[in-house]
Design a protein that fits this description.
The protein has helices spanning about 10-15, 20-30, 55-70, and strands at about 5-10, 40, 50-55. By secondary structure, the protein is an alpha+beta fold. The chain has a three-stranded antiparallel β-sheet.
Length: about 70
């Protein structure tokens, strides 16, 4: 599988950026530029939350375009 097609979750993104999962969760909810999740998995019922996953290539593009700019 092409690495860019890999799916990542909040924990993966936090590890990549060396920040907390809570910080990543904040960006996913508050940054309008953050990519929408590809899918929500592990949601046992319609009313319960599941695990959001993204394509790694979409997250990598956001990191380069938006996150890194904030750091400089």
């Amino acid at each position: 599988m092409d690495d860019s097609e890999r799916l990542v979750g909040i924990g993966d993104i936090a590890f990549q950026l060396k920040i907390t999962r809570q910080a990543v969760d904040y960006w996913t909810r508050k940054d309008p530029q953050f990519p929408a999740p590809l899918q929500v998995i592990n949601a046992p019922t319609a009313g319960s939350k599941g695990t959001r996953v993204w394509r790694k290539r979409d997250i990598d593009a956001w990191i380069v375009e938006y996150y890194r700019r904030r750091k400089t």
